[in-house]
Amino acid sequence: MNCDSVSKLIPLYYYGELTPEEEDRVEVHLHECAGCAREMDRQRAAAAAFDRRRLEIPPRLLEDCRADLMAAVEGGAPLLNRPEKGPWTLFLEAMHATFGGAIRMRQPVGAVALVAIGFFAARLTSSIPSFQSSSGSNAPLTEDVFSTVRSVQPESSGHVQIAFDETRRRVVSGSMDDENIRRLLLTAAHEDNTAVRVESVDLLKAQSGSLEVRDALLNALAHDSNPGVRLKALEGLKPLAGDPEVRKTLAQVLLSDDNPMVRMQAVDLLVAHRDDSMVGILQNAVQKEDNSAVRLKCEKALKELNASIGIF
Amino acid sequence: MAQNAGGAVGARLSPQVDSLIRAAQRGDQDAFECLVRAYDQSVLRLAMNLLRSPEDARDVYQEAFLRVYRNLHTFRFDCSFHTWLYRIVTNICLDQLRKRKVRKEEAAVVDTAEGPIDRLESFEEDAAESDPERTMLNRQLKQKIEDALGDLTPRERMVFELRHYQGLRLRMIGEMLGTTEEAAKNCLFRATQKMRNVLGDFL
Fold it and tell me: How many beta-carbon pairs below 8 A join chains A and B?
């Protein structure tokens, strides 16, 4: 084996990707050839340098990703490519999901099933009133009704009492100028589902001129648990960086938000419109800040304001 | 040397993973969540290491596992779930890397009002290094490595990432990327050569 062929095998040898025979031949050559042995050392040194580049997952990122994903799944991420199910299959599945527990409990379920058939039949035959948007926008497209049975109580008369919650899903569409759409988005900005909040705040941020939208963005910035939503809210508040209410929240965020990217953007917005109250806020932030990039940014802003960095 | 993190998880949990997959295919959301948790750390680490941006890694995570959720019923157990999952993840990451090549975007740098800032700095621990010369050398080396990685094609970068950082065997990497073990070997060789050339005097 000559030096040229060995040098081609060195990375593979290092990663243990050679056959045992190839490995033997490389080892014999490395033992005899100082030049190739140095090459091998360089390979090891390079690998050690690459190891130092390994990134740790930022704290909370994994938890946030999991929360986003489960929110998207629970919020109804569509199952693509599923075979179409007939109404009978859907009915059996609904029966199973709703009354599976009762069946496992070996209760007499004949009456329950009959009542359920009546109930579902009524559902299927009842006409669903269409949603009319008060503004006359082309709102309604489809709607579904979801029922969750909370309790099933056999009565002595042979009847069954069923308590259920009914959730109605409606789909509306309209432009951002539509008051109804905007109201829905303002509500959506408080939803449990993170993906819905991110989308809503993202859409609302273009409308930050309205007082209602500004307040929703401020609320999201100050209280949303998800940094992605808070960053979107910050983007939306950019044109309002001079507004005293916005500045109050920005100062609060700079001193208390746990995400460095959010704090970083808050400094950006604060320094975009300078006022006297900023010096104290920035000095406080320098004292409290444990992230070097954010701290440097605050210090730089203070220098530009000709203010001292420390509090005396 | 990097450990076989993802592969080890897949191998050790195989019987449990199979039953989780079957339950998730029947629509059991809890089983799906457990399945995600068995693999998601290594997926996030791969995306994070490749794309050097928490935001992009988060997007890859979300897109990959939503694709898994939507297409799990098509999984037929004819390869390991790990391989199937990584085919999805590597495709999404390769798309991102290719888009970046086109846009010539520097992933780790974010523009702010005060010029570009390395967004990863805000997530790394403060350098506890007391020796300024050493800090400088470390910074230069870090920059050299970033330059070297920037020189790799998306596919070379992916093979290197999967072999060096995720510790996967080249045969498996070939299977994930829809290529042969031999092609993966060539890719790894080219990647390490290019990187060693760029690192030059630092080694």
Answer: 133
